[in-house]
Amino acid sequence: MHEEAIRKADVLIEALGYIRKFHNRFTVIKLGGSVMEDPETLRALLVDVVFMQTVGLRPVVVHGGGKAISSAMQRAGLEPRFVLGRRYTDATTLEIVADVLIDGVNADIVRHINKYGGRAAALHPRTTSCLFGSPLTLPGEGGSRIDLGRVGEVDHVDTMTIENLCLAGIVPVLPSLALSRDDDGMLNVNADTAAAAVARHLRAEKLVFLTDTPGILRDRSDPGSLIEGLTPEGCRALIDEGVIDRGMIPKVEACLASLEAGVRKVHIIDGRLPHALLLEIFTDRGIGTEIAATGPARRDRRAG
Ligand SMILES: Nc1ncnc2c1ncn2[C@@H]1O[C@H](COP(=O)(O)OP(=O)(O)O)[C@@H](O)[C@H]1O
Ligand SMILES: CC(=O)N[C@@H](CCC(=O)OP(=O)(O)O)C(=O)O
């Protein structure tokens, strides 16, 4: 009986060091569509976010919702089309993307954070947009540019609004939609790059990607092949070797850009694991892949 109580006290003491270290620091948390499919998984993650906000960290949530968007498109008789990992977004698709991300996913996250005793604010183009950008075109064959429709990239973040909300103890929740500086219309942004842009502009302490894999795996079919610590050079080598592939490429590229811009650590973790966020941030061992500018980021020598 006493042993169990002492073990719980030890857990709290272990967390105390991290709570002190990250007090008043920004942590940007990217929620991928894959972890928002199951209500119980989402509940556990948002309870962690409320915990972080309550103990004085400054969590900022940026979310996607790719799976829900694809389902809504299919219900409307539209076939999703991706070009180099980006959804081709015409005017009809943009309406669906905005409805799913704003009225569906964003509203759901805000409601749940409030329900679990926290306070959250929806920041999107239909309330207060904090993300501003320009249309993204990708290089095509023979020097041409690939047109992606209303797809954008973030080039400005209203950090003041985000910071003020955090200071007031409110968790800002942003979907991956930006306002175009050209025409004031909405742009659909890849959620990994949107989260990285927010982390860069806030000079966040941490950027955490919650996804549907234990982290970066050396062998994608073997969860035991998790790579716990990586440097940017290590990441580039794994991309060249083809170990990092598909959806993981934009995530890792977003990680590298964030680290270059001063974000201290990036974590890629399994959002399906209950309390993944608390385990990664408040324990010595962590659970996923940690990428830091200076390595080697060995787990047994981690200091947050
Ligand atoms: N080396 C790797 N380790 C783990 N996952 C990888 C790796 N390379 C590619 N992936 C793929 O990346 C996916 C995660 O990216 P993505 O599907 O875009 O997630 P999200 O919707 O959370 O943004 C994994 O489910 C996996 O299929
Ligand atoms: C331009 C572009 O591709 N935008 C993404 C935005 C959502 C997203 O990225 O969601 P996940 O994080 O769940 O993948 C899309 O339309 O799917």
UniProtKB/TrEMBL annotation:
Residues noted as binding substrate in the record, renumbered to the chain: 65-66, 87, 188
Q: What is its EC number?
A: 2.7.2.8
Q: Which GO terms describe its cellular component?
A: cytoplasm
Q: What does this protein do?
A: Catalyzes the ATP-dependent phosphorylation of N-acetyl-L-glutamate.
| The entry's keywords | Amino-acid biosynthesis, Arginine biosynthesis, ATP-binding, Cytoplasm, Kinase, Nucleotide-binding, Transferase
Limits of the Aspartate/glutamate/uridylate kinase domain: 26-270
User: In what pathway does it function?
Assistant: Amino-acid biosynthesis; L-arginine biosynthesis; N(2)-acetyl-L-ornithine from L-glutamate: step 2/4
Kindly give the InterPro entries that the UniProt entry links to this protein: AceGlu_kinase-like_sf, AcgluKinase_fam, ArgB, Asp/Glu/Uridylate_kinase, Glu/AcGlu_kinase
Q: What is this protein called?
A: Acetylglutamate kinase
Could you tell me the Gene Ontology terms of the biological process aspect for this record?
L-arginine biosynthetic process via ornithine
Q: Where is this site: Transition state stabilizer?
A: 30, 251
Give compartment(s).
Cytoplasm
